[in-house]
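Comment thread on ticket #2218

A.B. wrote:
> Attaching the input chain for the structure job we discussed in standup.
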Amino acid sequence: MSSILISNVYSTRNKGDQALFESLLDICGPRHVHAVAAADYSEVSKSYPGVRVIRLPWESRSKNRFKKRFNNLLGLLLFCLDILLIRGRFTELGCAFRRSKLVVACAGGYLEDTSVSYYGMLVQIWAAVFLRKQILLAPQSIGPFRKKWNQRLCSSIIGRATSIYIRENLSLSFLSDTAKEKAVFSPDLVLANVNYSRPRLREATQPRPVVGITLVDAVYYLGRDAATEYIRKIVCVLDELETRGVDVEIVTQTIGFAGGTSDEDMIDDVLRARQVVRRKMVPDIASYLEIISGYDAFCGSRLHSCLFALKRRVPAVCLSYQPKAQGIYENLQLSEFVQSIETFNPAHVSDQLVRLCTDPVFSASIQARLDAAIVKVEECGRQFVEDVRRRR
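C.D. wrote:
> Ran it. Output below, let me know if you need it in another format.
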């Protein structure tokens, strides 16, 4: 009997989010999953037609800002009242929670308050807690929080979950003592997924080393002025790599919703300054992995693009826009390859990438560390897999 609800799924418009959901679906077993609660209903349904996807009632796609906010607030209110008063008998999402034996909150960096979607993610965990369902938080990052009361709210709710899996130790600092007792370290689902692990496949015909790069919507995370500086420094990296005989391809990991900024806006800005090869978004994770496998080194502003590269044994320099990347790289013993997106030194990043591409001794030493780290995290990830399958 299918008894698992996968909640907190975001979208397949981001290959990182898609890989987290795909990995979790594989762990749960599709025949055991009766429903998936997703913010981007249409895209998730299109990518996984055999899965029943439920639209989150507070995720309106209206282009009218006032109408969107009204619909989101109304949908959230109706769901909360449904859970509180009649225990999930009215809304489709409420009925899915009511029917479930086990709720698994999908992984990601959602439990932090830089976006209002944080409340939508948190309310799904609250619903499972209120209905006294078993709830597992798949390996994810928690925090940072801009407001103390948001941290206390999050810690109070997730502290009532059955188990809390965290992918880096920094998240512990944002949890209450009660929540810390339930916290278990487990690697990111992309790193733990053995199906994604395969040696890189560089084409022998490539005359020059090639570095893959992903960009992030820096306007959203940093603001307009900082985003301009970010683009300037990325262009400096491209110029330095070109001067030193290394080719570059920009890879699209995320496309935005209509009406907002996106990673593609950053790519367009960079391409207006320098002409490099641009790889468009591909529909599935396997194709995305094959693209990344062909590079000699990688430089990602999107965390999961770096994790994809590492899984394919491509050394990756991460330009981190949140603390989660630093923690994950420290666990892999590769912390020297992480820099802040706001303060990174273009010359240092270029030096690391060139050395990874052209210095065989240095590259081999990093490769050996990477091989050992991947084996270790895959073994560590088995605890979460066994926990889910024991409870389903």
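A.B. wrote:
> Thanks. Noting for the ticket: DSSP finds 17 helices and 13 strands in the chain.
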